[in-house]
Amino acid sequence: NDKHHTKENGEENDVLNDNDIAWFWRDDDTLWKPYSTETSCEIERGYKKQLESAKLTTGSFSKKNYIVNYEIMMQVNLDSQFTRDIKRGSKSDIKLNQNYGYSTSSDLDEISLAAYEANTKKFFELFPFVDHDLIRKSKNTRGQTVL
């Protein structure tokens, strides 16, 4: 286990070791998704510097206009003002279905980006084993067609 315990004001707290830190964002279906390792490290650097906010510049965010606001724990798209909840947690919280065979966290970025941009062709290349008709007809919690 990568956590260790400290006592503060007589209470035990779980403290994460640096190599166990992961950051997560909440998707439209209220599921927590991990940021890529690279993006998670970028968010953590700003968090440790106790910044109010930090611009996201790595991975799928490199050509986009996003910040994370640590005070309200939100990811903000500065172009659309669309926000998502974020949270800091442990890498052990990342529970990926082993059947998907993700080899790297950049695969997750690629999949998330394809879904976000509604790039159906790319999404289905990354998920050749899913029922394409079922995915095309499904909707998220805001009633938007997924792809």
What do you see in this structure?
- Helices cover 25% and strands 28% of the residues.
- With 147 residues, it is α+β, with helices and mostly antiparallel strands.
- The protein has a 6-stranded antiparallel beta sheet, covered by helices on one side.
- Helix 2 (105-116) runs antiparallel to helix 3.
Strand content: 25-35%
Helix percentage: 25-40%
Give me the side-by-side strand order of the main sheet: 4-3-8-7-6-5
Which stretches are low in confidence, meaning pLDDT under 50 for 5 or more residues running?
1-14, 96-104
Structural class by SSE content = alpha+beta
Measured between the Cα atoms of the first and last residue, the distance is 39 Å
Order of helices and strands: EEEEHEEEEHHH
Mean pLDDT across all amino acids: 74
- Principal-axes geometry comes out as globular
Radius of gyration: 17 Å
Helix count, per DSSP?
A: 4
Brief synopsis:
The protein is an alpha+beta fold and 147 residues long. Helices cover 25% and strands 28% of the residues. Strand 7 and strand 8 (83-90) form a beta hairpin.
